[in-house]
Amino acid sequence: MDLRLLLIASLSVVLGGSWAQQEGSICTKASAQSCGECIQVAETCGWCSDENFLTVGQSKSARCDDLESLKKRKCAANKIENPRGSIAVNKDKPVTNRKDVAEKLKPEDITQIQPQKLTLTLRSGEPQTFQLKFKRAEDYPIDLYYLMDLSFSMRDDLENVKNLGTDLMEEMRKITSDFRIGFGSFVEKTVMPYISTTPARLLNPCTGNENCTSPFSYKNVLKLTEDGDEFNKLVSQQQISGNLDSPEGGFDAIMQVAVCEWLALKDIGWRNVTRLLVFSTDAGFHFAGDGKLGGIVLPNDGRCHLENNMYTMSHYYDYPSIAHLVQKLSDHNIQTIFAVTEEFQPVYKELKNLIPKSAVGTLSSNSSNVIKLILDAYNSLSSEVILENSKLPEGVSITYQSICKNGVESSGDNGRKCSNISIGDEVFFKISIESQKCPSHGKSEIIKIKPLGFTEEVEVVLNFICDCQCAAEGQPKSKKCSGGNGTFECGACKCNEGRIGLSCECSKDEVRTEDLDANCRKDNGTDICSNSGDCVCGICECKKRENPAEVYSGKYCECDNFNCDRSNNKLCGGHGRCECRKCICDANYTGSACDCSLDTSTCLAKNGQICNGRGTCDCGICKCTNPKFQGPTCETCPTCPGVCTEHKDCVQCRAFDAGPKKETCEQECSYFNLIKVSDRDKLPQPTDQSYPLTHCKERDANDCWFYYTYAIRNDTKEVYVVENLECPAGPDIIPIVAGVVAGIVLIGLALLLIWKLLMIIHDRREFAKFEKEKMNAKWDTGENPIYKSAVTTVVNPKYEGK
């Protein structure tokens, strides 16, 4: 049930509240069995708690519908359960205005975000929106920790950093009067293959005559302090070390700087103020997984492991992952400034995109520009505010809209941030939180919203509306529920386990299906609930339609409000309502489809008579009693002789200079005014005039038709005539002759082709017959009786063969 309700509620948010019919469909389709289930479907769904609300055949879930539908179905307003969400501000301390405060404030007394705590009561599908104000405070304290790579390639940079403390302190005093600085250094994990583990190399990892300190992973040289001279003194005592590979173990150091916050003798000394971490290096970095090269497989645990200001577990835990580092930096409100050389700018810019509230600056080869780099990066970071929130409970979503400097508004991902904020500027964020379902435990949840890099946060307590108020007033073991077999709440029975029915009157174990079904057949028929419902405990619960406005009803679901007669593709002609498959017509309408109007105003003629006294008004339309009359009010008689025949010759002679009266036209036909029009549509129409008008259609001697109207207006006779005759078109001789000739030629060609084809077929048959006889012929192999040899043999009579 929960998944189904969540799916439906999500759909309601997508469709929007403007689609009332679709929302109604969602409410009714959910088949909610209680008020609590109903209000989880969508914010537009309500539950009618009126005990007598349901009609015969309706199921309990019919109480759940959209609010407008419930009102139309006559549910009283005070019986509609529709709880709404709310917002309560619990802590609303104004943002600090330093102009109103003369003395120096402690960091915990400075407020930059307002309000600080709210309580939201959420109903599923209904967002609650509130506004946060952020103001960048003046003279806000800053803690800066300088974390430096002390591998051999940074030896020239160390010289320039030795005087960094006092110089940076002087510059930062221009921004804030409360500034502290600390220093730490890192090299690499102290195992192979990152460093050489030979005894000599462990003492001095550098080659040649260079004097270097033993390799180490991370060292907290100086916790945060206001003493710039102490910074210079301790940094001056530092020595360069060395390692074998190019990437360094800076991530181990960053993790320890972030998490070692307030542990005794181990802490960095961070306060709840603006926290800046300057990471200075000229090389890349190792990250999670690289420790396997040294046989280190345990993931970084994200805890502080400083002993005597040295990181002691570098050989035991792997490097942290980028995501792990991002989490810890965000949890501890640390803004990171990567001061790296030109060569590694692309790498650290990609890293910056993964770490919110971080900046990258180009470090000169000897770190001579480090102060300018820090100031530029700080100004860039502090001029941007980005909101983030803690993990949201399941089913809860949050959206942001920013109203930044000069009233610039943004939404979506950009709605979380504002840029180019100067000290004293105020920006606003509209935050909407929405729940799609009640949490399974039903308890309150707390989320926190804070600007990245700042210690202040807003606590938002979320309470969920999971049931209706009327449910708390339920009557357990109510007599209304079949003698105590359920709880009567919100106008309906909530049955105990094993009981079913609107009044919990049946037991699932005691009643057979056959007995129940018999009570659901009308007139002992075969159809259960008229095939339009389900038999539940011997009572028909009618099915629901796709369109929530269409419903089945009746004891056997034999009625509906959508199978009545239609007119103009509208149910009951749009002039009535459908009840039990019959139209109940509105006033002044009758008929099976309410398509017959009793209003006679449409049948009134210009003279005030109904149908000009020539017919009756039937359903708002004139039915002329004399078939020769026609028109909306029986005003036209196209076939009536008299007027048209009488004036035909005069109209013909004056309009077309033709006809029998052509010679005497001026003497006999000047008794009317003639007006010519271009086509028949321009002729006056009977409904357009308040005076008698006759339409005429006549034919001349050439079988051409002409159209005109004859009318008498203010004793003046007027004739409107179409200036063009409608004559039958004569035959076009040339195409006919050409067609006949072409037909004869084509027929001749066709006959020749047919003859040629027949001859070819005949010749092929004769040749085939010849070939067949040739193959079957049997020749005599004896001598030809008429053959005479060309050789004559002469025998010498004297020859004796000797």
Provide tags for this entry.
single chain, 802 residues, alpha+beta, Immunoglobulin-like, Rossmann fold, Laminin, 6-stranded mixed beta sheet, 42 strands, 22% helix, extended
Description:
The chain is an alpha+beta fold and 802 residues long. Among the domains are: 113-138 and 387-465, ntegrin, alpha v. Chain A, domain 3 (Immunoglobulin-like, Sandwich), CATH 2.60.40; 142-383, Rossmann fold (3-Layer(aba) Sandwich), CATH 3.40.50; 566-597, Laminin (Ribbon), CATH 2.10.25.10; 599-639, Ribbon (Laminin); 643-722, Hormone receptor fold (Irregular). Helix content is 22%, strand content 25%. It has a 6-stranded mixed beta sheet, with no helix packed on it. Strands 10-9-8-11-14-15 form a 6-stranded mixed beta sheet, with helices on both faces. α6 (164-172) packs antiparallel against α8 (228-236) and α9 (250-259) packs parallel to α10 (322-331).
